[in-house]
Amino acid sequence: MKRKIFIPLLLSLAMLLNVSLFAQNSLLWEISGNGLSAPSYLYGTIHLQDKRVFDFNDSLMPKLLECSTFAMEINVDSVNETRLMAMMFMEDGKTLEDIYSKKDYALLKKAFKKMTGMDILLFNTMKPFAIMTLIEASETLKGKKEDTSKKNMKEEMDLYLAGIAKDSGKKVIGIETVDEQMAVVSKMPPSLLIASIKNSNKDDKEIEKMIEAYRHEQLDKVLAMLDDKSSPLGVEFSDEILTQRNHIMADRISNLIPAQTIFIAIGAGHLPGKEGVIELLRKKGFTVKAVMAPHTFKK
Fold first, then answer.
1. Helix or strand or coil: residue 145?
2. By the 8 A CB rule, do 132 and 196 touch?
3. What's the Cα-to-Cα distance from 122 to each of 7, 119, 191, rounded to whole Å?
4. Each residue of 88-112: b (16+ CB within 10 Å) or e?
5. DSSP character for 295?
6. 224 three-state secondary structure
7. Beta bridge partners of residue 32, listed in sequence order
8. Given Cys at both, which of 51, 114, 221, 232 links 213, Cβ 3.0 to 4.6 Å?
């Protein structure tokens, strides 16, 4: 799923002196202080299966294993699939033909057939974000079949880490509910689906740039790419997709960590910025500092 976050503007010398609060190169952060008896940890994930992004900091697994609980954006084991499917369809009998011009609908129909092998008429009452999900899922499956170099893991990073936590006997919880996340995603502008199709030939290059920034743990660069509306990876509805969710996540995390030690794995785009989870937790009185350690990163 696509994410976005605001870049903090360096408007004063004071902010320049504190730039490390926003742009430090780290994906793993320790949360302590504010009365906590033991630290919890915050890790920025990327929702991909590419093996290159699984080149973890050497501190990650020990920190995950020392916590009693693993938290991810949504605990997939708690998802009601019937309810989830119902949320993917438009209300009031609307169809894709009702919300798109004839030109855009023709483009969508042609692209959907090419990318999925199916006729868009079979999914004509689904919301644009659901159509985008179907296209991305189809492209992923094609990639798996064509991937003879074994570049991909079997599942995205969040699910991979959750599997390790489960195998280690950890409790797994969700920071958000399905209803909350779906309410946000449902606000995706219909134009974003058309823009995604038009820019599909640019996606691979942009994803490569994102992977490189992520592998070097450069949250500021990840943030800049997500904030760039001209990029295929940019997101148009930032307030809903990131900022509002950041506040919800920070509130939930601050309520959960006093009672248990938690390893929290959420999209890296939620971490940095003035209204990122790191800074919001600091405003609540917690000490949030980067966990730096050597790792086996290879260019």
1. helix
2. yes
3. 40, 6, 21
4. bebeeeeebeeebeeebbebbbebb
5. B
6. helix
7. 287
8. 221
Length of the chain: 299
Handedness of CA 143, 148, 150, 153 (dihedral sign): positive
What's the whole-model pTM score? 0.81
Mean pLDDT in order along the chain per 10 residues (299 residues): 32 28 74 97 93 91 97 87 85 92 96 93 93 81 52 89 97 92 82 84 79 90 72 57 89 97 95 93 97 59
Site of tokens 């307030």: 239
268/21 Cα distance (integer angstroms)? 15
What token pair was written down for 120?
């868009």
Q: Are 47 and 268 in contact (CB under 8 A)?
A: no
Contacts of 208 (CB under 8 A, 6+ apart): none
Instruction: Confirm if 39 and 261 have CB atoms less than 8 A apart.
Output: yes
